[in-house]
Structures are given as C-alpha cells and as structure tokens.
Amino acid sequence: MTRYGQQFGPDFTFLGVDPVDLEDTEALAAADVVIVGAPWDGGTSHRPGTRFGPQAIRGTDYLGHDGSRPHLALRVDAMQDLRVVDAGDVEMPPGEQERSRQALEDAVYAVASQGTVPLVLGGDHSITLPDATAVARHLGFGRVSMIHFDAHADTGHIEFGSLYGHGQPMRRLIESGALRGDRFLQVGLRGYWPGPETLDWMASQSMRSFEMTEIVARGLGACLDEAFEIALDDCDAVFLSVDIDVCDPGHAPGTGTPEPGGLSSRELLDAVRRICLELPVAGIDVVEVSPPYDHADITAALANRVCLEALSGIAARKVGLDHDPAGPLLEGR
Amino acid sequence: MTRYGQQFGPDFTFLGVDPVDLEDTEALAAADVVIVGAPWDGGTSHRPGTRFGPQAIRGTDYLGHDGSRPHLALRVDAMQDLRVVDAGDVEMPPGEQERSRQALEDAVYAVASQGTVPLVLGGDHSITLPDATAVARHLGFGRVSMIHFDAHADTGHIEFGSLYGHGQPMRRLIESGALRGDRFLQVGLRGYWPGPETLDWMASQSMRSFEMTEIVARGLGACLDEAFEIALDDCDAVFLSVDIDVCDPGHAPGTGTPEPGGLSSRELLDAVRRICLELPVAGIDVVEVSPPYDHADITAALANRVCLEALSGIAARKVGLDHDPAGPLLEGR
Amino acid sequence: MTRYGQQFGPDFTFLGVDPVDLEDTEALAAADVVIVGAPWDGGTSHRPGTRFGPQAIRGTDYLGHDGSRPHLALRVDAMQDLRVVDAGDVEMPPGEQERSRQALEDAVYAVASQGTVPLVLGGDHSITLPDATAVARHLGFGRVSMIHFDAHADTGHIEFGSLYGHGQPMRRLIESGALRGDRFLQVGLRGYWPGPETLDWMASQSMRSFEMTEIVARGLGACLDEAFEIALDDCDAVFLSVDIDVCDPGHAPGTGTPEPGGLSSRELLDAVRRICLELPVAGIDVVEVSPPYDHADITAALANRVCLEALSGIAARKVGLDHDPAGPLLEGR
Amino acid sequence: MTRYGQQFGPDFTFLGVDPVDLEDTEALAAADVVIVGAPWDGGTSHRPGTRFGPQAIRGTDYLGHDGSRPHLALRVDAMQDLRVVDAGDVEMPPGEQERSRQALEDAVYAVASQGTVPLVLGGDHSITLPDATAVARHLGFGRVSMIHFDAHADTGHIEFGSLYGHGQPMRRLIESGALRGDRFLQVGLRGYWPGPETLDWMASQSMRSFEMTEIVARGLGACLDEAFEIALDDCDAVFLSVDIDVCDPGHAPGTGTPEPGGLSSRELLDAVRRICLELPVAGIDVVEVSPPYDHADITAALANRVCLEALSGIAARKVGLDHDPAGPLLEGR
Amino acid sequence: MTRYGQQFGPDFTFLGVDPVDLEDTEALAAADVVIVGAPWDGGTSHRPGTRFGPQAIRGTDYLGHDGSRPHLALRVDAMQDLRVVDAGDVEMPPGEQERSRQALEDAVYAVASQGTVPLVLGGDHSITLPDATAVARHLGFGRVSMIHFDAHADTGHIEFGSLYGHGQPMRRLIESGALRGDRFLQVGLRGYWPGPETLDWMASQSMRSFEMTEIVARGLGACLDEAFEIALDDCDAVFLSVDIDVCDPGHAPGTGTPEPGGLSSRELLDAVRRICLELPVAGIDVVEVSPPYDHADITAALANRVCLEALSGIAARKVGLDHDPAGPLLEGR
Amino acid sequence: MTRYGQQFGPDFTFLGVDPVDLEDTEALAAADVVIVGAPWDGGTSHRPGTRFGPQAIRGTDYLGHDGSRPHLALRVDAMQDLRVVDAGDVEMPPGEQERSRQALEDAVYAVASQGTVPLVLGGDHSITLPDATAVARHLGFGRVSMIHFDAHADTGHIEFGSLYGHGQPMRRLIESGALRGDRFLQVGLRGYWPGPETLDWMASQSMRSFEMTEIVARGLGACLDEAFEIALDDCDAVFLSVDIDVCDPGHAPGTGTPEPGGLSSRELLDAVRRICLELPVAGIDVVEVSPPYDHADITAALANRVCLEALSGIAARKVGLDHDPAGPLLEGR
Known about the structure:
The structure is a homohexamer. In chain A, helix 4 runs parallel beside helix 5. Chain A is built from 11 helices and 9 strands. Chain A is about 35% helix and about 15% strand. Chain A has one domain (about 15-320): 3-Layer(aba) Sandwich (Arginase, Chain A), CATH 3.40.800. Chain A is globular, with a radius of gyration of 18 Å. Chain A has helices spanning about 25-30, 55-60, 80, 95-110, 130-140, 170-175, 195-205, 210-220, 220-230, 265-280, 300-320; strands at about 20, 35-40, 85-90, 115-120, 145-150, 185-190, 210, 235-245, 280-285. Chain A is an alpha/beta fold. The interface between A and B is large, with 43 and 36 residues.
C-alpha cells in the first residue's frame, strides 16, 4: 500500500502537510494524526459527487498551504503542535463497493494499529463502516463509543437490495459488535427517515439519538453534556463521525441528501472542538461533502474547518490546555 | 375542471400521492388534504420564476416518492395517517391575471367546500387572495383568522397601476371582508416597505404584525403564543400562508424579493409544525419559491419540508398527540 | 475631482439618490452622508471581484430605485430624513495600489472635511487605510475610535512582500497614529490567522478583539455594550468598518476569504443599526463584497441593507428617536 | 408618456447614450434610432425572466459606457455617426397583457411616426405584435416586410386559452394585415413545433421559412440572398425581429425555450450586420434574453452585440459604405 | 421485472408516452421503440452524475409533455407514427456494478427479443456493454454493426483494477464476440487517450475510427458515407451509441469527461437523424449526460433532441420518406 | 528565485510533470519546455479572476495527472517525447504591477536564456509584455515574430491612466523594439475596440490583423498561410500568444472581456497545433482564463488543451513528423 496520491485530479496534501506512505509503519507510529482520503460515492442513495470530497477538503483554504494553522481562540497550532501527515487517497474504484470497503478498512487499520488517530476524508457515509471497524479492531470491539453528527440515523437495513449504502453503516457497526448500541450517540437527526421498524431496532439497541426538536428545546450544550457522560462510561475512546449534512442546507448546500432545519456551522465547529478537547478521540471521519453541489466552496471550507477544529482540540488536549470560551482573545483587556 | 397535471414540465404528484380530479367531489370529500398547484408568477414585482414552484415543491426530496413520510419527532406518517391527494395544477396563463385568479379560487373552493384542507403550492403571493377567499366562502367571511409568515406585509394598495400584484393580497382580503384585520397575524416582517400610509391603514385595521426586531427581542415562541390567542378569539379556523422569504436569503435564496435578516429554516419548520398541531388549520399556501434563483434545490427542499411539517402537525392533531419537544427520540433512554 | 460615475459598468447612484461632484464643496457640506465607491480588489490575498462591489451594493434592491426607504422598525426614512448623495467611484486602476490609495484618501477627505459622513462602498478591506485616515485627518489623529466587524484581524505586517494588502490596514492605521490601538474594537474574529507574533503586537497595542467563541459564550449584546463603553472613552467619534465576511459564508458567500462560523445576517444588521443609533458615527465603509462568488445576489443585498441600517440609525439618532426593540410594529396592538 | 427609466433595477441607458422622453416628438424626430425597453415576460410559455432583458442588454459590455462604439470591420461608429437615444422602458405590469401590449404599441408608434427607427429590447417575443404593428401603422399595412430570426415560427393560434403568448405574434400580425404573409421571411426554424395544421396555415399565407436543415444544406448566405429578394419585392421597408434562441443554446443559454441545433453567434452577427447594411430597416426588436438562465452574461453580451451590429449596419448604409468582408482590417497590408 | 418507475426522483415517462411493464411481452412486441432508463454512474472515471441522466432526458423539454412531437423538417410525428412506450428505469444500485450490469442486460434483452428497438437512456458509457450485448443476443453475435459517437474510444483494458468502467465497454463487446471489430465505426474521437498499446489493439481488430482532425479535413458527411458502407457490409442491423461528449463542451458542458474540440450540436443532430433514416437501427443508447454539471439544462435538452431525431428518423424510414435536406419547409415557395 | 509553488491554493505541477527550480540553470537547459505560472489579474480592465488561471490550467484534466499525454492524431506523447518541467508560479502581488512585471520577465528570461521554450500560464494579457520581452532579450530584439490570437488588438496607449494594463502590451512591445510591428500577426479580432487613432497607429507599424469578418470570408486556413509566410520572413523564431477570448464566449465563458462571434474551440486547437508543428516557436503564453466566470471548467479545459496541442506540435516537429490531417486514425483502414 504505497502512497497513491489523490484518485481524482492533481496530487497534493491536506494544507501542505508532509505525505506519508501507508507501508511506512514507523512514520505512521511517529505521527499524531494521519489524513486518509476515501473518494467514494458509490454508496449514496441520491446526489453523488463525494468522490471529490477529499480533494476539496484538503485544498479549500484561502490561507497559505504551508502546514501551519494557529488557532485564534485556543492558541495552539495543530499542524505544528501535532505531527499531522497525509497518506493520500485509498483507491476506491466506483462501482466496486466490496473491494473498496476492504481497501479502506485496511488503510485505516494501518494507521490505528500504530496508535495514531486516522482522520478520514469522505466520500459518502458508507465509509464509516470500514473506518470505525478498523479503529475497533485495534482498541477492541465494544471499547469505542461513537459520536455521530448527522441529519440521518444511517441505521437502515437494506436499501436498493444492498447492505452497504450510505444509509446503513451504523447498523452494520452495531450488528458486527464493533460498536455498542448503548454507546452510540447521534446528534442532529431530523426529517422523515427512518420509519418505525428501524426506530424500534435503534431503541432495542439502546442508542441515544438527539433529534433537532430536543436540541432546540434543551440546548445543544446540555445534549452534549449528556452525550459525553454516556460516551465515557466503560469505553476507552471515542470515534467522531461528522456528516456535513448535520448542518442546515443554507450552511452546507454541497451534499447529497440535504435536510432543512439543521445546525448552524458555528454550532458544529464549537461542538467538534469541544469533543476533541474533552474526550479521548481515537478516530474521525468527515463525510458527505459533494463539491458539484457546492457554491463558492462554502461547504468544502466548512469541512476543512471541521478538520482543523478537531485537530486543534486534539492539540489543546495534548498540551493540557484549560480553555475558557468566555475569555477575551487578547491578554490585558 | 378535470385534473390538469402540471402546467409546466412532466406530470407527477406531491411525493407520489394519488392524483385526484377536482370534479370528483366524492374523492375530495374523502380526503383530509388536497394539494393544488398554482404556477403563477404574473404578480411578482421583481424576480419571476415561481411558476416552477409547484413542480419543485412536489418533486424535491431525496427520499423515495412513495407517499410515505414518517415524522421522526412526532412519530406520525402524515401521508399514511391522513388521506392526502394531489389535484395537479390550475391552468394559470401567464399574462392573464383575472382569468387565472378566478380559476384558482374556483379550484380551492371545490376543495374547501367539501370540508377538506387545501394545501396550495405557489406561485407568487398574489395567489393568497383567491386561496383565502375560497376558504372564507366556505367557512364564512370573517370566521377565519390568518397567520402569515413573510418578510413583507403585502398590504399595498396599487402597484404598477394594478390592484392584484403579490404585494397586495392581504389588503384585498381585508377590504372584501373575507378576513378580519384584527385576526390577521403577521410574522417575520422587516426591511423598508411599506411606507407610513400603508402602515397607518394596517394599524387602523388592528392588524398584529411581528417585525423581526420584536421577534429577536421577545423570542419567536412568545410572539407565537400571543398570535395563537388572537387567532382563536371568535374565529373558527386558521389559514396559514407561508412566504418562503420569511426565511433569511441564506436559507432561502430561491425567491423573488429576498430581504436579509430573516428567520432560520429551523425556526420556520418548528413554527409551522406547532401551528398545525395546536390550531384548527383550514387552508394553507406555500408561496414565492423561485427555482431559477435557487441553488442545489435548498429553497425547494425547505418548502417541501414546510408542507410536510404542516401535514405532520395536522396528522398529529388528528390523532390527539401530546408532544413534548424536549423528550428523547427513542424510548428507554 | 469631478464626478467619475462608476468605474465598471453603467452609471447609476445608490438606490437613485442625487449624484454629487467631489469638487462641489458646498454640496458636500449640505449633505449628511456622501456615498463613495472604491472599486478596488488589488489588495485581496485570494478571490478577487470586489471591484464590482460598489456597483452591486448600489443597485441590488428589489424595491424601486427612488431614493426613499422607510424603515419598518424605526419609522424613519433615512433617504428622506437625511440628505444622502452619491459621488460615484474613485478611479482606482487595478495594479496601481499607491496611486489608487491616495486618490481614495483624497476623495474621502473631501467629504469628511465638510463635516459630512462618508459611506464608502468597497472594494477589498485595504481601502480602510485611506478611509479612516481621511476621517482622522479631519477629526484629529487619535480622536476617532474604530468598530470593526470582520472574521479577520487585518493586522498583518507584510504580505506578499507588500505593506498594503487587505490583511494589513488596521496595523497601518495604528502605526501612523491615525487611530489608537486601545480604541480599536474588533467583532467577529475567528479561524487560524494571524499567528502569535501578530496577536502579541495587537495585545501590546491594547486592542479589544471579540472572537466568536467569546461572542457565543457571552452574547453579542454584552460584547457590544463593552465595546461601546470603550469607544466613547476619550474619543469624539466612531468609524464603522464592516467586512461582510464577518457573517457566516452561508449568509455571505460572495466574498474573497470566507471563514465558516460567523454571525448571522440578522445579528449584523441589528448590531449596525444599534451602533449608528447610539454612537456618533463619523465614517463608514462596507467592504469585501465579491459579486462573482455571490449567488442570487444575497451577499450584495445584505451589504445594501447594512448601508440602509446604518443610514436609518443615523437618521433616527438625528431625530432623537427612542426605540424599544421589543415593542409592536403597529400602534394600538 | 414621460420617460419612465427602467421598470426593474437602477436607471441607466443603452451604453450611456442620452435619454429621451417619448413625449418629446422633436427629439424623437431628430434621432436616427430610439431604444425602447419592453420588460415583459408575461407571454412566455416556459422559463420566464425576459423582464430583465432590457436591463441586461443595455448594460452588458466590458467597454466604457460612453456612447461610442467604433466598429472594427466597418470603420463606422454607430453611436456617433447616428443619433441614438434611449426612451427607457415602457411600464408593462406583469399579469396585465392587454394594457401592456397597448402601452408598448403606443410607445413604438411615437418613435416610428417621427420617421425614426425604434430598436425595442425585449422581453419575450409576444412584444413583436405591438412593435411591428406600430411600424406598419406609420408606413402602411402591408408595406413592411419581416425578417424573423428564430428557432420557432411563432405562428400558433391559441395557447393556454389565449391569443397573445410569445408563440403567436406572427400569426396575429398577418391576420390583422399589418404584415403580408408572402413577405414574411423566417430564418433558423427547427425542432418539433408547430404541427401540421399550423404549417398548412403558414403555407397558405405563402410564408417563406428557412429551416435549419435547408440552411445547412444550402448555406446561410444563399438563403439570405433569396430572402432579401423577397423582402424588397413591393415593400418599402423591413422589420427585423431577432429571437436570441435562433442561436444554439451553447451560444445563448439564457433564454426561455432553448432549441438545440441553432446558428452560431458569429453567423447571427454577420447576418444582422448584412441585413442592416443592405436593406432599408425601419424597425428592430431583440427578444427572449432571460438573464436568470444566462451564464457569465454571454447571452446578454450577444444580444448587446446584435444591437451594435444592427446599428453599425444602419450607420454604414447611411454613409454609403462599400464593404468588402474579405479585405484586411488595416490598410497597407 | 415489473415497471420500476424512476430510481431517483418522481416518476414520469419520456415526454409523457405510455408506461410499459417489462414483463408484458405482448406490449413490448406491439411497440416500435421502448425507452429504458439506466441510471448508473458507477462506471465513470471522473465526474459522476449520470444517474440523473434518464430523469433529465425524459423531462427536459419546454413543449407540452403530451406524447406528440411533429418533426418540422421530416414532417413525421415520431411519437404518433411509431408506438413508443417507456419501461422506466432498471434498478442499478450505486456501488454494485455486476448486479446492475446484469439487470440492464436482461431488461434490454426483454425488449430486443420482441423485435422492438430499445432506446436506453444512460447513465455512463459502461452501460453500452449490456445494451449492445442484449441486442446481439437476439440478432446474433457478429450480425450487428456499431456506430459510436464519442470523444473517446472506450476501448481500454483495465482501469482502477476493473474490467467494467465507462472507458472499456467497446473492448469487452469485441472480445466477447457480440460485435465485430471490423464493423465498429467510431466518430468524433480526439484528445490524448488511449495510448499506443490500445490503439494497436484497435487496429488489430480492424476498427474504423474517425478522429476529429480527419472529420475536419474531409467533412463529416464524407466520413459518414464511408461509415455507412462498412456498417451495412454483411451485417443485419446497426446499434447506435451516442456519448454526448462527442459534442464540444460549449454545446454539452453537462458531462463527466469533457474533451474540447468536438462536434457542434447541429452536426450531431443531423448525423443521428440521417443514420436512423438510412440504416436499419436495432438499438440505441444515449449516454454521459451529467445534470449536476449542466447549465440551464442545455445538455439535457440536446440529449432529448438526440432521442427525438433518432425516433423521427426511424419513423421516416418506416413510412418510406424521401427527404431532401435542401428543400423548403413550406410548400409553394 | 527558488521554486515558489503556486501563489494561490495547493501546490501541484502541470499534469504532474516534474518541478524545476528557476535557479537550477542546468535543469532549465536540459528541458525542452518549462511551464511558468503568472497568477496576475492586476491588469484587467473588467472581470478579474485570471490569478487563478495557472492553477486551473495545470489541474483541469479528467485523465490521470501522470505526466503522459499521447496525442491521438499526431501519435506523439509530448510529455514523454519532450522534457517538460514546471517552475511553479512567479510571485506577483496583486496591486504591485511594476514589481510583478519585472519578476515575471526575470523568470521567463531565466528559461529562454537557456535555449528552452517558456510556456507561461496567465494571468491577464498584460503578462505578454514581460513574456515576449524576455524571449526577445535572448534571441535579439526584432528577431522574433508574434502570432497573437485574440478578440482584441491590445494595442491601446493609456488606460485608466496607466501604460501597463491588459489592453496595451502589444503596443509596448513594438515601441520598445522587442518585436517588429511588421512581423506582428493578429488572428480573431472583432468588436468595437480600439478606435481610429489606435488603428492608424497599428497600420503605421505595418501590423497584419485578421479580423473575424476576413477570416469567415477567406477561411482560417488561408489566413494562417499568409501569416506563416510573414512570420518566417527575416525572423528566427515565433512567439505564440493565445488569449482564450479569441474563442466565442459559448466555448470560453470563463474570461474577463468576452466578445461574441469568435472562433470555435476546434478551430483554435487545430491552429495552435499547426503553428507549433510548422513554425520554430520559441515562447508561448496562454492567457485570460478566469475561473470564477467559468462553468463546469470548460474554459480551463480548453486552455489546458491549447497547451497540450502546442506541446504536441513541438514534439512532432522535433521528431520530424509528416502529418496528414485527412488520414485515418488507425492503420489498415
């Protein structure tokens, strides 16, 4: 598994970080976070285009692509304070879901098995099955809790006659035992899917799903407090899966199955930062960015910032930062 | 008035519900809600395109067009728990406002007179004159209150030398006696129109208009509480008219006269659901969706969801649901 | 400096107000506010296009271009209650930053020196250096405080080997003494720029920068309260500089360096109105609107409304209005 | 009928020419060509938006809006060699076709009756009924031949129950006697409309319609030769009506009813120039430019150039130019 | 294989023709042409989106969706003179290429085996493998020649480790013996793919490929003459495969792998009509229309017209029309 | 002048060729062609955005970015048969035209002085002044002829008070003596600029400008024949400057000053290939690609292909290819 570059378009790394080869276990072990691209849109049930997600997330930033990003509020530079490298894309031939899924799982496991955090850039949400499985293979089945931002539960059984579309990975993960249903936290659900049978199955697995009505009524902070408590109960680490469609289509139009009424981008960025600052995150994926439906790159920019907030939170956690969100930016005032 | 299909583009129904013929009074009477398309943009004072609104609202949904939409939070399936059918579009020849207005009023009356709720898909806001008149003809002039979401008061007198543009329907409805000014609730007004004379006329009619500054200062919930009390005072039913431009242009760019500083799509969806759950709604229209100015269908998707939230609220009201917005989605957690 | 019209495209004025000639000092003195276009995008570090900002801000409004805009909530008509005129654009040849900067400073000084408020339509943010310098030349170096809405601090030292890009005007203004660092209020900062050295410089100047995390934690209202107190402490007037990218890209996609996680357009409009109503504003600029990246003109419309809210606030302040944001729009209810 | 400005958006004239008032008969008589805007899309059977056509055609040009356009090949400056003025738009309230049609006919007649050439900027093609009628009223019914560029014959009888949509003006013109069927030359027809009955009616009127298959087989030049001969046979003048959809959608996407397989923009420009250079043109309209469907203003730019080629041809005819298309641009080589 | 409707979006048929069920062999046999949708983009090597091709090609037409399209030049109405019905889409789950390919082959064979012409709407070009195989299964391996419009030869061997992408179907068809290499006519090739090895293989199969340089030098008509002769030499029928990217990106931007320098849309339409008029066409597919990359639906409209020209040619051939392209549209002139 | 990477966005090379450092004279001398990016839009008189041209031209290709491009018609692989390397961008700070111009001239001279062909990716057309000057400095002032594809003559004197915008480079080149006016060949001019004075100056310099009317009347081939003869008369080499706006806006919408009625993309590609195959080309630039105004990357793709046709022509000339455009692609047929 030598470095593949990007499957589509020119080859470059996430904001200019160093490339890494997935066969170079030493380099993987020396890193804090390894970027992995999963350019797969063969699992989407509607608008495709997420195959161009890794490219867009890596490259959409008006700042210099120089491997440095000092975080204003946290005062850490995730890309300097951490060792972040980019393994390029996994080859995922459109139309070949089984082969592609296995290749991705192998790549993510190559990273996770070195004790390094994989940050996987999707691709559609079906990639979370291999992503989280690979992390659980290393840390132990049932030892990793999941925090899952999404408009959709993604717990479907069979769609278009297949077990492996982007609406089903969460069910597969629980069925296989990789993740526990009662440590599965979902944030931002809304709309008209899934139906009663699936919801019953979710309840039977003791999943905890925060639908938007509850989030509006109780506040996102209170919901996250509750989620954090569950996530840390008899689990060793957290997998964070961010479907960009958790945000309102006004903030993230470039996605495949946009559901109106979601979080603002500010809410998502604050939540992701807090999770990575307060919890032991062992794996991350950012999915469902579909550039053909984006406008002026605003969805790609948001996903890029989700990655940077996550990295900055991890860096701040590493250095033991005690951050007061209400404090002033500059000292002395 | 046999079923016409869609005036523009291919013929299909709202998310795949059964078609109905407006001459089939038995079928109309058997339904809970009848969809009616009003593909009219001859009343707009600026950007046209709402003629394609009915088509866009009917068809914009990434889920299967199968006549089923289980509501996550309410746990009703409006399209199964209610009998929802689609009468297609009314023929409204561009450039022929008088003939078009009459045809629409007849169609809506055909539905309302059977005791069935018409859900009219605009079209520009001038269609609310025939829509609400038809409902009032059935329930009695002055017996129907109005809840009107909009950036604009739509109470102009004469525009471009005409009485019947999209900025004037509310005045015509009050002048004719169809609706009472003192049971006219407006939510979301803002900007720089209309001027003092019109505002004086509105005050003289005892209209209650919640401008965005008041909504921000007091909270949307408190404003709706006040509005609900007025709406139910000596009236038998409510007409709900939703101009999509009540939302901020960031959430609803695809419209003719976008006014910055509006509601979020989440706020609108929550409000519409609450109205239909708590009040006896007898007619609805959803207007001013202009697909040529939309991006990635986000405005059309929002309008589709406004319809579904309304239908779900009606369904929940029908089954006597007691909904706690702060409760968890899944039982047992 | 006779009136130049618009540098790009057809010639028209802001919403149809009267044109004015910059050499006609009598007319400048008789005005309350003079619009000046600064069609300059030679300072941007990324996406260009703000050269078309003045044209877009002047002309984007679905209402008649008739020089009247009655404000719904404040019940003033800024364009009638004030004398607002438009001096057209300053000629700013792309590629000639020094000549362009000087020409703009001269034009703004021509207005400010008559005791009239210049409202400058950018252009990229590098124009604030000449804009605010010109106002300070008239009112006294160090006598004007700054309220600066932006995602970015714009306090960089050297970029691309130049002192004068759009990321540096605030540093130049403080260095020259035109503005005091300890009366420099920044609202809406976020993201990953600038780095520690620049932040240290900012702190050393006693700047007060409200980053978004603080704004979310404390509320925008509380932050503005604090800012207002500083702004009025031993200063005679306020310069208001609004970079449209202070808003979230979902609300303002048409800009050069969009940073996710910003204010909503509602928050910005409310803040601008409040500033102009409560503080003695002596100069304004609205910058970084880039029409090529806009969609359905929503960013241009927002910037147009920022201008109108500012003008309406100034008008309300002039007539001594006592405004209660929580009050009803119409009397008698 | 004092000058109205533009019905939509800011007020400016065609490339900066002087404005004229339609009541100022002396000024109309002194002009060679008067621009008239017809912002009407109430006649379109599909995509609207041509109401913004006049604004787009007037203003879309990257050159200075200075009332000068020296033609490279012809070496005339139409806007200097001719007296061209702009009467602004006729008020044409959307939804009011009868009133609008009459107002436009009156305006065009005001120009034509002074012996001046009206150049009408549409608007949809239904405006050609009043445009050509007005010219014929002045020069005599049956004395004006028509050269009509279009993908569609526009000879429909009744559409959507109306006689006056954009698919019918040519029939109405022949029925009324304003124009003779046997002096009606159509260029560029193609596609699947109208059906046999209408084609039979057209044949019965002895119309001469050049379908694209014939144009490809014989060459556009040969077809124009034939058309010119008919046009000048017992007629005193020519009306030129250019529907931008005569061009291929690749060259003119911004239109309401795009039909693939049309002329290139080069072919249209060359033909229009030749017509105005070789024939006594007494009236012109340029229609069906729909900015909401345009991209990067290419359709608006094309329509602007159609106007300039027509004006340049008229100017060259006026000065008696003898132009050799195969000659070099610069003398001496 | 009961009728499936459309896999994505609402259900409607090609321009409103009657639906048909693939299990209803009697109905298939009674038809002249059966439309089949192949909403598959799992084979594309670059920009996806062709899954929405069938929906776009069926529905993009500004004329009434009424099952009638009288051809102006040919004076036939393909949809009346032929029996055209629509079988809906084949279910082709994204990510499952093998299952999808088989399902499509079965569906096309169901049509072809009744002696009826399948007109398959893609989808990416990988669908031509099942399409043409199914037709050859009925008429005999080696008995059907191929006329293939494309910028690309599509004769690759292995791509992304797979035999079945959109760049390889033509090789698979020849390898399997379904089609003969020496009866394989390619029109419109250009660019920088494939390389020498593949070209050598193509030459070894005696394929006849008309690259654009040759087409420009000799004329498209002459090339088609030569192609027709080969096509009819010891073959019984022709399969026509039209990749929309044979046209220049200016005429067909909405596609996955646009190669500049192609045919104009006029050239393609004329060629398709001529083929279906002069040759015994037994199967057709129209592929690579990708709506997310289209603008103002011009690519979808072109593909719709390719279908209509093909159908009109078949109808004209059926009625024995003798068509003179240089003749006038209307009799008597 | 160490390699700078790309000034905007991520760093990658033209289709994946090797990078080169401009200080590495040995490497420059060893190359046949060196790519240089000139991301400058400070010279444009209207729509900016060409600063993103180099990035777009380097990266827009659906094929693998693998440094190989076998030319179908010529059967050479320019990127293998030639040594092509990429020096990255020259830093050209927006707003600093003098410094930027000098930096670019130095960079191009660094290449040309090694006897290597510079291929400069613009940027607006003002870059041709330093580009061609640098080549002439090496080969001798007056020893290099120019073939210049453009809608505009670019021979203006002073624009916006400056000598150095994108409408003036050709005048500066002749004035300085770098190029001879009587060896200056312009192809594709059209429209309404420049005026008589400038045309007189051009004639006085004995320039040979082929306006589109002449090209249509005589054929592009005949015009090129004439141009080639002049180009080779007492000159040692040719500079080829391609402004993408020489093509019709339908084929190249993504540009700053689109002039309708231009060449098709096929015509441009054929002409560029022929020039590089038949003439001793010593320098090339491809300019005026403005990605913000592009759609579906069709303009960027065209410019990428202009580069590849030029490179392929140079490669074919190097190997002494004798190419017959009318011959078949594959041998044996």
